[in-house]
Amino acid sequence: MIRIDAPGSFAWGVFHERHPKLVQQVLDALPYGPAERAAVERLLADSTTGVLEPPAESDHDHAQWLEWGAGLWGRPWSEAPFLWAESYFYRRLLDAIGYFRPGAWQGVDPFAPFKSAELAGAAVDEELAALSELDGLPTMRRADALLSSALWGNRADLSFQITAEAGGPTASDLVADERAILWSELERTRGGRICVVADNAGRELLPDLVLIDHLLSGGLAGRIVLYVKPQPYFVSDATMTDVLASVERLRTAPSEAAAAVGRRLWHAMNSGALVVRTHPFFCAPLPYHDMPADLRAEFTGAAMAILKGDLNYRRLVGDQLWPPTTSFTETAGHFPTPVAALRTLKSDVVVGVAPDTVTHLDSTGTPWRTSGRHAVVQVALHR
Ligand SMILES: O=P(O)(O)OC[C@@]1(O)O[C@H](CO)[C@@H](O)[C@@H]1O
């Protein structure tokens, strides 16, 4: 289990270096009043030197968090697992800015300015315009281009841009590449239900939606359930508001290819071919191994679940310093369906990497696990 109390570790850096920058960006992005600003600064101090206190008894999820944090309440934040502490940090950040409290700030996404700016940005105009170039490609070439866009869209995660290294992806950046297995399994189960567990909004959700349109239009998926977060989380994680903004961004794009995707997604949502759902567990501080029975039942029977991004990966395989050669199927085998992970490496957790690849990456002397430069496409077909 990874903790945040080892100075110099990635997890320690997230709490002691990344969160202070993030908090300042949040406070600079919206004109919060003195009460919200003081509460955010208190959270920042608490999360590095204080003890864990549950949400207020009056909060809607008080009982749930009492359960999720059993044995941790009253102990220093530094004694909590990294996954748990980071999740709770975002839950308390929402408290601090009044997201749950009745009043003017209730329901205002603190990360909306970042998400809106990214979605409205010129980079998205360029990416949507490039879609028309894919229309003429053979189906499999187009499919693979869309899968790569969805995969590398995960690199655009805002919380990552604070320390991101620039530079576009190359094939060697894939340290585990099971795309052929993924496409073969989707062909074998053609017409089945595919679950996509989204990660970030903006430049990750857009290619995710374009891929979803491809899977539906081409018949690989008869129905797609897109899972998003029930509330703002990890800066850029997608909510229903972000899905609607992204579908609208597509539908109103100058590029006809993009606009057609937007129209098809809109109609797919009208018909129920594309359903967007959420569940409290997507903001829980726990691994997917511990998912509640109702969510497990929702996934069960799907042809494939595609999990996007680094946090979903950590929750899928377990937030531990596994030997990188540990089997992905063994660590992901608890998931109720065949599962694929599309993830850029932005934290220490990685499994399923071939020994010679690990040897090579270690020999580069670069922080290959956390730099965001590398990615994996991995599939577990145990079910
Ligand atoms: O799930 P994403 O958006 O790909 O990445 C989220 C994430 O990389 O950001 C945090 C650091 O800020 C990590 O601890 C966490 O895994």
From TrEMBL:
<dbReference type="InterPro" id="IPR036075">
    <property type="entry name" value="ARMT-1-like_metal-bd_sf"/>
</dbReference>
<comment type="similarity">
    <text>Belongs to the damage-control phosphatase family. Sugar phosphate phosphatase III subfamily.</text>
</comment>
<dbReference type="Pfam" id="PF01937">
    <property type="entry name" value="ARMT1-like_dom"/>
</dbReference>
<protein>
    <submittedName>
        <fullName>Damage-control phosphatase ARMT1 family protein</fullName>
    </submittedName>
</protein>
<keyword id="KW-0479">Metal-binding</keyword>
<keyword id="KW-0464">Manganese</keyword>
<feature type="domain" description="Damage-control phosphatase ARMT1-like metal-binding">
    <location>
        <begin position="15"/>
        <end position="354"/>
    </location>
</feature>
<keyword id="KW-0378">Hydrolase</keyword>
<dbReference type="InterPro" id="IPR002791">
    <property type="entry name" value="ARMT1-like_metal-bd"/>
</dbReference>
<dbReference type="InterPro" id="IPR039763">
    <property type="entry name" value="ARMT1"/>
</dbReference>
